Amino acid sequence: MLNANRYFKHQLKAYMRPMIIILAIVLLIGSGVCSINQDSARDLHYSHERGEYVSADHKYYSDGGVRMTAKDLECYKIHDLMLGYPVIIMMIMCAVAPGWMFSIFKKKRNLDCFYSLPISRRTLGMLQYGLGLIAVYLPFLLTYAQALLTNMSGGYFGNLGHKYILYHFLISIAAGFVIYTLFAFVFNLANSSGDGYIFMIAYQLVPVFLLGSVESTVRAYDRLTNPGVYTYYSFVDEGHACSYTYFGELLSDLCVKAERKYPEKYLDRSLADPEVWTFLVIWIIVGVLALYGLYRVFGEKKAEQTEEMSETVFGYKTLIPLCAVAGIISGFGDDFYYGLMYFVAAVIGYTVYRRGVKYKKSDGIVLALLFAFNIMMSIVNYTMR
Amino acid sequence: MIEIKGLSHSFGTKEVLKNIDLTIPDGTVMGLVGINGAGKSTLLRLISGVYDAKGHVLYDGKSPNEEETRKDIFFLPDDPYYTTATTPNKLFDFYKTFYPDCDRATFDTLISKYQLDPKKNVRNFSKGMRRQVFIALALAVKPKYLLLDEAFDGLDPLSRKIFKDAIITLVEEENTTVLISSHSLRELEDFCDRFVLIDNNVVKSHGDIAEHVARLCKFELAFTEEVKQADFAGLPIVSLDIKSRFVTIVLEGDKEKMRERLSALSPAVMDEMPLDFEETFIHDVESGRGYENA
User: Fold this and answer.
1) How far apart are CA A205 and CA A43, in angstroms?
2) CA B74 to CA A19: how far, in whole Å?
3) Other CB atoms closer than 10 Å to residue A110's CB: what's the count?
4) Prediction pTM value
5) Model confidence over A84-137: pLDDT tens digits?
6) Are B84 and A336 contacting, i.e. CB atoms less than 8 angstroms apart?
7) Per-residue pLDDT band at A66 (split at 50, 70, 90)
8) How far, in Å, CA of B56 to CA of B46, rounded?
9) For residues B246 and B55, what is the distance between their CA atoms, to the nearest angstrom?
10) Which positions in chain B touch A3 (Cβ < 8 Å)?
11) A103 touches chain B (CB under 8 A)
């Protein structure tokens, strides 16, 4: 434990210089963002009748065919809280930190040193994870404080929806934890940094593909059972399956609420949607599971696998066929060539996986099955027309 | 004491080490030798805990996977880790976090002997200079068990001497057990007590270097008439090189007895030639590949 403390302090000191540079850049850009947005602060008037803001110029006049009177309007001094900027910075750091913190474990020569030191691999990995969390949260917290202080100094703070600022802040913290931990987990599943970055992107996109394929299947079933009647069936918002788009949208909505101080009865539809909050719970569970997975990976990963092909079942092996099948299924209503596109993508995927055209027999079998599946789906699709 | 029992390791389907048994007593300087790809580095990684061992590696009965055990171990790989902006001083600080007893004076002395600038970026050093920095670190840590891979790689003769002297001092003062892999067998012969030869995935031979060298003897013979291989039948031949009337022969066994047996063949001239560890190594390795009597 003593070694862990000393290592953490040493690494903190080592990361200090690049961290200070990052902080200086984000705060400098932040001050620019603050000054620009501060100038754009303006009075806006909320129309209960229209359920939206109207500019001051339209206060007593007809706007879009609707006549408004002073009675219909509530006047709010609205101001851009600039809370979007810290969130963007945090989201960027969530993607940068895994490579920054864990790429040292992706080279055999580094592991000769680290894995022979008197500190357990698990402790070493979790300390690097902790340093990554600091890299994610520190720029966020500072730019958040910068934004709030700018608002307070401009005299706008009293007009804001404080409750929503708190929600925004807490959910931002949760978003940072979930996205960074998920990225850290999948990055460490890989045996090389390159594969790690590919896994990070794949784990953002593949769940969206999967949800899309489920929705396509449901819709196809609907068409079969109710021929001639087209019903748009939205199973679930596909964007919720991507941590970036989910948290991005949720935080953006909360930011709007915080800025414009809506009356409670005019809650945004997205915030009133139970699906949105259900996904928050799901994502937090995903984050906790990813943290547990990370803990396991650090303890179980073998040094000799480093720089080799990433053979984990959570990697290419599963992602490529899963993504291709989901893509082909989501092509219901389209033709053979649409599915062929995913087949070609799978071939490219295996080429990246094997670092060349050195396919294994199992890869060939999977590709043949994917091709056959595409033909089968095309026939099904043709008979359904 | 390091005890290795039934140690095996494979990379995929390729078996690199098979059922290695070895005991290294405390205070021993043991040379680890073998041809390229024999598995020396893999063995060191298994012993140091970098690779998970199939079999047993025990340091005074304790596993190297335990943090407490690792405090006593220092593994210096052939290509050690350093960050792009690091200096010898920063490296010392890094290792000091894990080995609090790391001795600054020893480090400074060796850095000074090697005439290195402790504040200069290690990236700008030559391969040999980088090696010197890490050797200084390894010796400053003063571990109970020192594992060195390709220890002399890139070092000039003077640096090698400084290094060997420092190792001898370390063993004398701290009773450190040193396991050192190298292809510089003449260097190993200078200061290693024992050796272990890894060949064809197994421990081919091990023991005292001097005894190992002494079990072989080499003679150069000149005959008045052309000789054939059959003339030497019955002798314990390790290697035999016949060029018409001239013969170079390496035999296994007592030197005097071998001299007597060769004298019975009535050579016109018979000279005993010196044999060193490197030559015995070549004979040992060749014999396993059917090169003997070639």
Assistant:
1) 40
2) 31
3) 20
4) 0.86
5) 899 999 999 999 999 999 999 999 999 999 999 999 999 999 999 999 999 999
6) no
7) very low
8) 10
9) 50
10) 67, 97-98
11) no
Six token digits for residue B285: 């390795």
Question: What count of residues does chain B have?
Answer: 294
Nearest to A296 by CA among A103, A129, A176, A94: A129
B240 bridge partner residues = B249
Q: Select from A113, A119, A304 the Cβ nearest to the Cβ of B51.
A: A304
CB-based contact B77 A120, cutoff 8 Å: no
Reduced 3-state DSSP string for A329-383: HCCCCCCHHHHHHHHHHHHHHHHHHCCCCCCCHHHHHHHHHHHHHHHHHHHHHHH
Residue A275, helix vs strand vs coil = helix
Q: How far apart (Å, rounded) are the C-alpha atoms in residues A101 and A140?
A: 18
Cα–chain center distance at A305: 29
Assign A260 to helix, strand or coil: helix
d(CA A108, CA A126): 19
Chain B contact for A10, CB < 8 A? yes
Q: Enter the ipTM.
A: 0.86
Q: How far is A4 from chain B (nearest CA, A)?
A: 9
Cβ–Cβ under 8 Å, residues B196 and B4 = no
CB pairs under 8 A between A and B: 64
In the three-class reduction of DSSP (H, G, I as helix; E, B as strand; rest coil), residue B167 is classed as helix
- The H-or-E segment that residue B181 falls in is strand B177-181
Is B71 close to A118, i.e. CB distance below 8 A?
yes
From chain B, which residues contact A within 8 Å (Cβ)?
11, 45, 48-52, 67-68, 70-71, 73-75, 77, 79-81, 83, 93-94, 97-100, 147
Asked if A203 and A186 count as a contact pair (C-beta separation under 8 A), the reply is yes
CA distance A119 to chain B (A): 6
Q: Please choose, from the candidates B275, B218, B278, the residue with its C-alpha nearest in 3D space to the C-alpha of residue B248.
A: B218
Distance CA B259, CA A262 (A): 108
